[in-house]
Amino acid sequence: MTDVARAAGVSSATVSYVLSGKRPVADETRQAVEEAVRRLGFTLNPVARSLRTGRSTFVALIVPDIANPFYAHLAGALQDQLRAHGYHVVVSNTAARRETEEDLLREVVGQRFAGVVMTPFRLDRDAFKDLRRAGVPAVVSADVEFSDVDLVMPDSTAAVQRALALLAASGRRRVGVIAGPEDATGGDPRLERIKDAAAAAGLSIPKDLVVPGEHTRRAGVLGFERLMAARLRPDAVMCVNDVTAVGVMDGAEQAGVEIPADIAVIGHDDIDFASLVRPRLTTISYPARQVGRSAARLLLQQMDGRASCRVERVVADLVVRSST
Amino acid sequence: MTDVARAAGVSSATVSYVLSGKRPVADETRQAVEEAVRRLGFTLNPVARSLRTGRSTFVALIVPDIANPFYAHLAGALQDQLRAHGYHVVVSNTAARRETEEDLLREVVGQRFAGVVMTPFRLDRDAFKDLRRAGVPAVVSADVEFSDVDLVMPDSTAAVQRALALLAASGRRRVGVIAGPEDATGGDPRLERIKDAAAAAGLSIPKDLVVPGEHTRRAGVLGFERLMAARLRPDAVMCVNDVTAVGVMDGAEQAGVEIPADIAVIGHDDIDFASLVRPRLTTISYPARQVGRSAARLLLQQMDGRASCRVERVVADLVVRSST
DNA sequence: CTGAAAGCGCTAACAA
DNA sequence: TTGTTAGCGCTTTCAG
Q1: Which nucleotides on strand D sit less than 7 A from a protein beta carbon?
Q2: CATH number for the domain including A212?
Q3: Number of domains in chain B
Q4: Domain for residue A128, yes or no?
Q5: What pLDDT is stored for residue B307 in this prediction?
Q6: pLDDT, chain B, mean
Q7: Which of B46, B90, B93 has the CB atom closest to A90's CB atom?
């Protein structure tokens, strides 16, 4: 920048002001500076700027696994939104491991990120305290509330009720659930909603038909095997997400169990997969890109100084296909 | 850091050396510093360090669409590898638009990224010249060579030959291709390999059965419609990747065309989808995570100073399932 | 084994 | 309308 200043015959402050437009500059001077900038191919050094202003342009996105289509779409939408505001998205995977979650969150502070969007699984509810004390904007996308952060969560009560009502109406009686991990933060709200809706629909969910899992395809396969080993087998399965539902389908195929004849399967998220598998998966749609946009909005507001602790709900809805 | 120095009764230089281990420090001094660091909860400011050293810890990953499972897996693997070396991965989508590709590449230089991994589509072959002149390590993942960068590309000649031989052996005669865009940089090597292999297998690929597309699911649907409108319909389709192959399957279903009875379909990449759709997709596997690891290796070598222009090939292989 | 001090490139008072 | 200057927090000579 000193070079540009010299070349244009002005001070470096003036160059800075021309570039930022933060104070009026005489046309003539501006021209000279712009000319010099062009001639020298100068670009601002964002590192120096960050050091000076204390503001970074990097936002962390911390998710269990970016290869899960739900998070990949969320990441895409977040990136689209934030890029338009000059921010960059840094992606990290936790594999849903608590230690990794903690490490990465510490890193957000250590690296002076401008903000963070996270889907925590096993983090303490007040794990964001330090972060917020350090003044780092944060948004959580989860089914569970965490202290001191903005939240994006599904509004899925009605959809789950419709799902269970559908199962009841089609003559199903015993519903199994491939749930989330037992040690997840804040329990398992999706499971609770399912239980409530089942009760309302007059369906039973026996304890031994609720099997915990890691939100993975493999968890779906294993879960299905456990369901088949139950004293009384279920005639329907609700899955914590579509990836596990696909695992359940894998398991059913291996076991020669017919969907939906022998057993109905319902997923959650409506990722691309859902309409591709056969039978097509009935699922509770939870639009990942919209979640990403909401998270971006909340985060941008915080970064702009509105220090709120708000909750934004994204409506989930039942999509009926042929697995029920 | 000054605070820590004061608290420990040493100079800030000593604090720096304790933290970096770049020169021996008396045990007593070290203890005092570490104690002070702990008490004050001090962490190094990476921005200041970057400014001083001129080295950033951010690596850009520039891909058409992170929501495409291939790139999502690539991103996951890249992130895993680079994180172990203290780097962060910044993801950006180009939507395969040339202008966006150029913008993002300029930004890599402007933002002083430590390196870049990119899948370009419409970029000039020498678009990396500026970048390399600026000394930014770069790795391209593509089927095409670009000047002045390391490359990760598929070694798929044998696999494509096997694919076409398989089609010939199962009595197919007229092969259609859903190819890449016509204005892609360096033409369409996948198409060329298919043509060569078809000739070797004694199969014809009429000009009107080669339809260009954008590597998207939609391109698969549209491409299939065009193939069905041809004078003489194909009895097999090779697709530029699995996402388009899924689009072809969508199209076939809508048109009431049976796979594989009426037409065989072969994809490329072997993403998760491939084994999930029905019929299961025969495809040329190209392991995204391995591509990510290779890219990481090449990039790390460059960032360590080995200024090579190397090509690393990842072996692709035919996976035969039920769509052929 | 340790300290003093320069300086990375920028921004934002403050002064003119 | 413009310039001078301090300093963001760190690393790294150079000197002791």
Answers
A1: 1-5, 7-13
A2: 3.40.50.2300
A3: 3
A4: yes
A5: 72
A6: 95
A7: B90
pTM above 0.85, yes or no: yes
Confidence bin at B305 (pLDDT 50/70/90): confident
pLDDT for the residue B204: 86
pLDDT of residue A308 exceeding 80, the answer is no
Residues A137 and A211 placed together within one structural domain of the fold: no
Asked if B307 and B254 sit in the same domain, the reply is no
Measuring alpha carbon to C1', the residue closest to nucleotide D3 is A11
Residue type, A46: P
Chain A nearest C-alpha distance from B58 (Å)? 8
Sort out which chain A residues have CB atoms less than 8 A from B112's CB and list them.
45-47
Is B278 near chain A, with CB under 8 Å?
Answer: yes
Q: How far is CA B215 from CA B96, B179, B246, B269, in A?
A: 9, 8, 11, 12
Do the domain assignments include residue B322?
no
Q: Name the residues contacting strand C (CB < 7 Å).
A: A 1-2, 12-13, 16, 19-20, 22, 43-45, 48-49, 51-53; B 9-14, 17, 23-26, 28-30, 48, 51-52, 54
Q: Give the C-alpha separation, B126 to A151, whole Å.
A: 45
Q: What is the mean pLDDT of residues B224-248?
A: 96
Q: For residue A280, what are the domain limits?
A: 157-285
User: Rounded to whole angstroms, how far apart are CA atoms B70 and A248?
Assistant: 23
A100 in reach of chain B (CB within 8 A): no
Task: Encode pLDDT of A130-142 as tens digits.
Answer: 898 888 999 999 9
What mean pLDDT is predicted for residues B159-164? 98
Q: Are strands A236-239 and A264-269 parallel, antiparallel or unpaired?
A: parallel
CA-based nearest distance A24→chain B, Å: 25
- Which residues of chain A neighbour B83 with C-beta distances below 8 Å? 92
| Residue A257 in contact with partner chain B when CB distance is under 8 A | no
Across A174-198, average pLDDT: 96
Evaluate whether residue A322 is within a structural domain: no
Q: What pLDDT is recorded for position A305?
A: 81
Residues B78 and B124 in one domain: yes
A321 interface with B at CB cutoff 8 Å: no
Under 8 Å between Cβ of B191 and B251: no
The reply to whether B56 and B128 lie within a common domain is yes
CA distance A252 to chain B (A): 13
Is A93's CB within 8 Å of B79's CB?
A: yes
- Average pLDDT on A13-29 reads 94
Q: Contact at 8 Å (CB) between B131 and B120?
A: no
Are residue A15 and residue A60 in the same domain, yes or no? Answer: no
Cβ–Cβ under 8 Å, residues A159 and A134: no
DSSP state of B58: E
| Any domain includes A319 | no
Measured distance CA(B89)–CA(A111) in Å, rounded: 13
| Å between B115 CA and nearest CA of chain A | 14
Instruction: Give the separation between CA A153 and CA A312, rounded to whole angstroms.
Output: 6
Per CB-CB distance under 8 Å, the chain B contacts of A76 are 65-67, 93
